[in-house]
Design a protein that fits this description.
mainly alpha, 4% strand, DUF2795
Length: 105
């Protein structure tokens, strides 16, 4: 995913745009104003929608300050809690131990 580090250039470009505007119009406007590859990549990453003002666009562009989820964190949490974070360990469903259930022992 593209991450925009310099939002000042984007703010300048967006200040010259008439709103409301759709994603395609915003990207085309930025291309026409000679936006950097980084800026264009960030704009292409925003959701397809009609934006009412520059602030809404800026909030949608992934920036270096935008927190990104770490890969695998949800999966690790599910493994630790066996998929149920609200149950005590004794209340969790577990597999039956074959040694404990064998009546011949």
């Amino acid at each position: 995913m593209a991450v925009l580090r310099d939002t000042e250039a984007l703010k300048t470009i967006l200040s010259e745009l008439d709103f409301p505007a759709g994603k395609d119009d915003i990207v085309a406007h930025a291309e026409g104003r000679g936006a950097s590859r980084e800026t264009l990549s960030g704009l292409r990453a925003i959701p397809s929608a009609d934006y009412s003002d520059a602030g809404e666009v800026l909030r949608s562009v992934p920036t270096a300050a935008t927190p990104r989820p770490r890969p695998g964190t949800g999966q690790a949490r599910r493994r630790r809690t066996h998929g149920r974070s609200d149950a005590a360990e004794q209340a969790r469903d577990t597999e039956e131990n074959s040694i404990e259930s064998d009546p011949s022992l």
